[in-house]
Specification:
Blueprint: E1 5-13, E2 19-28, E3 33-37, H1 44-51, E4 59-64, E5 67-68, H2 73-79, E6 80-83, H3 95-105, H4 112-121, H5 137-149, E7 155-159, H6 167-182, E8 186-190, H7 194-200, E9 203-208, E10 211-217, H8 218-225, E11 227-234, E12 251-252, E13 258-264, H9 271-280, E14 285-292, H10 295-307
Parallel strand pairs: 3-8, 3-9, 6-7, 7-8
Antiparallel strand pairs: 1-2, 1-4, 4-5, 9-10, 11-13, 11-14, 12-13
């Protein structure tokens, strides 16, 4: 089965010569959640804008559901739902009317049962008769999601959907996203909250300076690039690391009671030899703890390497 979103060498160069997209290649499978991560100015919003028909690419091509985003604009746009970063809503309109109007824009007939389902799903049903200006920032963000879903898109772009939303509302939205996925909706998510990608994404794409650095299954990425840290608690403080342990590049805490050792999970760890050497040097252990790199640490390291 071909990918539902197929991007080939997509480019965007502005009149001043700035290259926002430098030959993007990306294939997104139907029903998956892809997290698009990158620093500010990396090209995330430009890529989404190009796929949604908001900005015109200057090179390459892209298809959504087999339709070209330029020659088949109407077909692709009808398949796409977009939740933008900006809270662009009519402040004096009611929630229900705002969402219903969006469905009409796509030529869809009235469906009050669907509207109720979406508003309930987003905890907006009790606010349906409120004017937009009466809502909190988090509730306005939910209205944007409702507007994006009301024409029943197959592909949903979420551009920083939980920006400015408190933790509780953010987790509620994660549940909404998971439910959409269970109904076959493909979701492309850009976010600054790395834990968001770590919690709900199937795959991770990292973009920097208009180029895709990698696209990989989240679990495989964390396994391949993640590093583990071994923290060793000592019974008695030491003033320095013995010469016999210099090869391990250990870090000694200021108090002298903890040693930290980082190792690559894909190589021989050397932990057994390390512990044996500690015992040989007469250093008694109180406890040991291990932790693995988070997705945020992996992402920061990748971008640092690219910018170096």
């Amino acid at each position: 089965m071909p990918p539902i979103v197929d991007v080939q060498n997509l480019q965007k160069t502005y009149n001043d010569g700035f290259q926002a997209l430098r030959g993007i290649n990306l294939a997104i499978e139907e029903g998956e959640i892809l997290a698009l991560l990158g620093p500010n100015g990396a090209g995330k919003t430009t890529l989404i804008s190009a796929l949604c028909g908001i900005t015109t690419p200057t090179g390459g091509s892209a298809k959504v559901g087999g339709h070209d985003i330029q020659s088949g604009y109407r077909e692709t746009r009808s398949m796409i739902g977009l939740v933008p970063q900006e809270l662009a809503l009519e402040p004096f309109e009611k929630v229900m009317n705002t969402v219903r109007f969006s469905r009409g824009l796509f030529g869809k007939g009235r469906d009050d049962a669907l509207l109720e389902k979406i508003l309930r799903q987003l905890s907006l049903w009790d606010k349906r008769d409120n004017r937009i200006r009466e809502l909190s920032g988090g509730m306005k963000r939910r209205v944007l999601i409702a507007k994006a879903l009301v024409h029943e898109p197959r592909v949903l772009f979420l551009d920083e959907p939980t920006a400015g939303v408190d933790v509780e509302l953010r987790r509620d939205m994660w549940e909404v996203v998971e439910d959409l996925k269970s109904h076959g909706v493909t979701i492309i998510l850009t976010t600054h909250y790395i834990e968001e990608a770590e919690a709900i994404a199937d795959r991770i794409a990292v973009i920097s300076k208009g180029e895709i650095l990698l696209v990989e299954d989240k679990e495989a990425l964390m396994k391949r690039l993640g590093r583990k840290t071994l923290r060793i608690e000592l019974n008695e403080p030491v003033s320095k690391i013995p010469d016999a342990l210099k090869d391990y590049e250990l870090e000694l805490c200021p108090e002298g009671l903890n040693l930290t050792y980082q190792y690559d999970t894909q190589k021989r760890t050397g932990i057994t030899r390390l512990l044996h050497t500690l015992a040989k040097e007469g250093i008694a252990l109180h406890d040991i703890h291990t932790s693995q790199s988070s997705l945020e640490e992996i992402f920061v390291d990748l971008v640092k390497e690219e910018m170096a």
